[in-house]
């Protein structure tokens, strides 16, 4: 099969590689759509020790099962693999499993390839009316759905019900959509990139600003740099909640004194539970997250340039989705 192989810092090549071996309880999925995630970009830039070269990246994927009794079934992939037996897994919080990993982390190759072998329990059937390139958004949408759910479970709604999302990439936009789907209508996205901000406003019907002011009951940091954490600390209202998704850099930014004096809650969130993934898929299939028409599709051969364009900040669309067969 053909696959996009990460071979070193800012180095990607399309190669012929062996087809994946299908184990017990697994299906072979013919990948038709695979999105580029921020974590793929971190690996591409050499910033993710969990993804050493050489490696097939990619974990936001959908496709069609080939072979077996489910041959021809359209599915989207929950890429989170866990042990299934620890207390976290038994509590349906497999995102906290100490053995957790996501495909595109060794020893599991990723989904920038024509085929992936995946456990049947990690496959969600996609209705015929939903395009597979939109079903491939289930993974990043589930990240934000999970984060919003945790934030809303903590938020004291008597203190306010508005939200600021920092970062207008796929995770930030997904957070804005999840906030509205879960009952928060007053949502602002802070996005400094003018090209992306215009896209969010004109194509996604979002309130996007270059710089935010005022305070918000909930602030979602979908970027995760010291500067964005500093902004979250400043913009979160007394008694409010900061929900942290982004993994841009490890240290700095939080105003711990203000957070303490104003009783601001900080929640770190990682991926999603199986329930969150299923609920996100249902929301996609039912149209609760909108038309999801904010993707840009490219071929696998065009992927190296897609990564370079993302690196240069010249991509307006929040998500590029690759087609390994184009």
List how many beta strands DSSP finds: 18
Question: How is the quaternary structure best described?
Answer: single chain
Helix content: 25-40%
Please, what is the average pLDDT?
Answer: 95
Shape: globular
Uncertain regions spanning at least 5 consecutive residues: none
User: What's the CATH architecture of the largest domain?
Assistant: Alpha-Beta Complex
What would you call the structural class? alpha/beta
Structural account:
The longest helix is centred in the middle third of the chain and has 17 residues, at 138-154. The chain is globular, with a radius of gyration of 19 Å. Helices cover 29% and strands 27% of the residues. Strands 3, 5, 6, 9, 10, 17 and 18 form a seven-stranded mixed β-sheet that branches. A six-stranded parallel β-sheet has the order 13-12-11-14-15-16, sandwiched between helices. The protein has helices at 38-44, 87-90, 132-135, 138-154, 170-181, 194-204, 226-235, 256-261, 274-286, 303-312; strands at residues 2-8, 11-16, 26-35, 55-56, 60-66, 74-77, 80-81, 101-102, 115-119, 123-125, 162-166, 186-190, 208-209, 216-221, 236-244, 265-268, 295-299, 319-323. The protein has ten helices and 18 strands. It has two domains: 2-137 and 292-323, Medium-chain alcohol dehydrogenases, catalytic domain (Quinone Oxidoreductase, Chain A, domain 1, Alpha-Beta Complex), CATH 3.90.180; 141-268, NAD(P)-binding Rossmann-like Domain (Rossmann fold, 3-Layer(aba) Sandwich), CATH 3.40.50. The protein has 326 residues and is an alpha/beta fold. The model has no long low-confidence stretch (mean pLDDT 95).
């Amino acid at each position: 099969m053909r696959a996009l192989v990460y071979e070193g810092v800012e180095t990607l090549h399309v190669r012929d590689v062996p087809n994946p071996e299908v184990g017990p309880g697994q299906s072979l999925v013919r990948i038709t759509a695979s999105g580029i995630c921020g974590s793929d970009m971190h690996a591409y830039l050499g910033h993710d020790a969990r993804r050493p070269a050489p490696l097939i990246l990619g974990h936001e994927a959908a496709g069609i099962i080939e072979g077996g009794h489910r041959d021809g079934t359209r599915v989207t992939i929950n890429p989170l693999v866990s042990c299934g037996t620890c207390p976290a897994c038994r509590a349906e919080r497999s995102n906290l499993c100490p053995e957790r990993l996501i495909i595109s982390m060794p020893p599991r190759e990723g989904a920038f390839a024509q085929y992936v072998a995946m456990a049947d329990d990690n496959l969600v059937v996609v209705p015929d009316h939903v395009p597979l390139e939109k079903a491939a958004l289930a993974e990043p949408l589930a990240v934000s759905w999970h984060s919003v759910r945790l934030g809303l479970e903590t938020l004291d709604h008597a203190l306010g019900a508005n939200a600021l999302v920092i970062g207008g990439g796929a995770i930030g936009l997904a957070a804005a959509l999840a906030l509205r789907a879960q009952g928060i209508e007053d949502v602002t996205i802070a996005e400094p990139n003018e090209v992306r901000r215009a896209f969010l406003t004109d194509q996604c019907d979002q309130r996007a600003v270059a710089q935010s002011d005022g305070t918000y009951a909930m602030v979602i940091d979908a970027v995760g740099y010291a500067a964005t954490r500093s902004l979250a600390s400043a913009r979160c209202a007394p008694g409010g909640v900061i929900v942290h998704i982004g993994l841009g850099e490890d240290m700095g930014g939080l105003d711990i004194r203000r957070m303490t004096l104003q009783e601001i809650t900080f929640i770190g969130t990682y991926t999603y539970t199986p329930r969150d993934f299923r609920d996100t898929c249902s929301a996609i299939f039912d149209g609760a997250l909108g038309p999801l028409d904010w993707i840009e599709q490219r071929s696998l051969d065009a992927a190296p340039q897609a990564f370079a364009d993302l690196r240069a900040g010249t991509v307006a669309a929040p998500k590029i989705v690759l087609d390994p067969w184009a």
